[in-house]
Amino acid sequence: MAACSGDTTGSQVSGHSTSKSRRKICDKHNRAELFMSRTDANPFRRFVKCPERVRGCTFFDWVDDPMPDYQTMWVERLKMQKESLEDQVEGKMAMVNNLSERIELKEHEILLLRGKCAELEAMVKQCRRNSCLMKGVVALGVFGLLFVIVLVVVLKY
Ligand SMILES: [Zn+2]
């Protein structure tokens, strides 16, 4: 069997085909190229046409018989499944994009929070220093007060 080709390229088909009922070669130019139909009406149905078609030759013939109804139905069903899967892929891609954007935002937030964290740590250190200073002042005050009380008591007696 000759290899099937797309709509744009074709390969030469030899005249000795198995199907007797169909012409496989243009009588006028003794040439033909094999193609495969991608239309909804004739999916994957092979046909031949003359390479001289561009110069007006009208030779065209189907190689395969029309697809039976049940096969056409299956092709339609598979097409619908393909479309559904493509929709799903599109939906998932949109989700991935959305999540990527959210991750980017969160990364930005993390950076901001790290900056704030560093600021707070610096403030805590400063507070600790201040607190030490205050403790010293309070201790000095208490000591002074005790000294005064002791002095008063000693002078009284
Ligand atoms: Zn021709």
Automatic annotation (TrEMBL):
Keywords: Coiled coil, Membrane, Metal-binding, Transmembrane, Transmembrane helix, Zinc, Zinc-finger. Residues 75-102 form a coiled coil. Residues 1-23 are annotated as: Disordered. The chain crosses the membrane at residues 132-155. PROSITE patterns: ZF_GRF. GO terms for molecular function: zinc ion binding. Residues 1-18 have a biased composition (Polar residues). Residues 26-66 form the GRF-type domain. InterPro entries: Znf_GRF (IPR010666). This is GRF-type domain-containing protein. It comes from Perilla frutescens var. hirtella (Perilla citriodora).
